[in-house]
Amino acid sequence: CILQSQRKGEFKGSVLITFDNEGNILWESNLELDVANQIFGVIDMAIDNDGKVYAGVYSYNEESRNARTDETISIYEITENNISSQSEPINFSVSNGIMKVGATGNVYLAGYSQSSLKKNEDGSYVVTYDPENSSIKKLSQQEFPESYFDKVVGGGIMLGYLSSDKYSLRVKGLYEFSNGSVALLGELRTSITVQTQNGSTTYFFTKNIMLTQVGADGEIAKIDWYDSKAMSIGGYASTTFTPLFANDRIYVLFSDNMDNYSGKSGVPFKRVLTGIKKYCCSMVTIDANGIGEAQKLLDTKSSKNTIATPLFVEEDGFIVIDYDKKGTNVSKLKVEL
């Protein structure tokens, strides 16, 4: 799909191209969008089993340092020969998002919002769209609780330094449970650079697994998080988490430090790097009721392998890509699921 979003007056047009699994073009359509006289951006797109395309778009008239004027979220429903849209005005600014066609027939657009463009992401939003009636059933938005800013962002200590107020909140997945409720998963990332007489070192924190729980009615019910305590000096890749969905549950695997399971109090963030002595792989299970307890799956004391990336779920565990001293393997990690 190619959708251009430029300054007003410079917009050239929009084209939607659909492909089959082999990369062959199925159909191509020039789109007449009703946001052509505004500044707009495509949040995400999804396609259903019948080949109908859905696009989530935000648009606005002007942008200042603090806010956008007349910002709107639109859901476009597109086929080869037809395009329709439904829009809702919003009193927040869209930061990012993800779109998904649910098993219940709804289409969901969900992500993170900003109350001010001068601030980082400080809320979640979800749009529930009904394709059968081509209508937006619900638009729900909720700002994060005050405890989020106390415990997650500001006021904390990292390596003896005050935590950074500069962070980003990235969408990691959107999942629909059998009871019709929905879970939006995200990851909070931040970094600090420590200056010493020998130079500087930048520490990368994938600090939290964010969960936004949405009821079957489309209303945001709760915003919660799990403090994953992951940190490295090699970038975010070695500490990011990977979610897998099976058995009506989300299994979240992430890098961790064994000291975080020792029961000892102390520095709240432990350095996590693949292959170090205190490295372990942990798992948190999330279902329609929320976040469960973390459990340690694998550590470098009991195994020569370290988890890199889980691929998919089987009945009694995960098929994963892992590392040992000889290189990269595809192995099975047995877990009671």
Could you characterize the architecture of this molecule?
With 337 residues, the protein is mainly β. 2% of the residues lie in helices and 58% in strands. It has 1 helix and 24 strands. The protein has one helix at residues 146-153; strands at residues 2-3, 14-19, 25-31, 39-47, 53-60, 72-78, 83-89, 93-101, 107-114, 123-130, 135-143, 157-158, 161-162, 167-176, 182-196, 199-214, 220-232, 242-246, 249-257, 279-287, 290-299, 306-314, 317-324, 327-334. Strands 4-5-6-7 form a 4-stranded antiparallel sheet, with no helix packed on it. It has a 4-stranded antiparallel sheet with strand order 8-9-10-11, with no helix packed on it. Strand 4 (39-47) and strand 5 form a beta hairpin.
Task: Note the main attributes of this structure.
4-stranded antiparallel sheet; 24 strands; 2% helix
Give a short synopsis of this structure.
It is built from one helix and 24 strands.
Task: Summarize the topology.
Blueprint: E1 2-3, E2 14-19, E3 25-31, E4 39-47, E5 53-60, E6 72-78, E7 83-89, E8 93-101, E9 107-114, E10 123-130, E11 135-143, H1 146-153, E12 157-158, E13 161-162, E14 167-176, E15 182-196, E16 199-214, E17 220-232, E18 242-246, E19 249-257, E20 279-287, E21 290-299, E22 306-314, E23 317-324, E24 327-334
Antiparallel strand pairs: 1-2, 2-3, 4-5, 5-6, 6-7, 8-9, 9-10, 10-11, 12-13, 14-15, 15-16, 16-17, 18-19, 19-20, 20-21, 22-23, 23-24
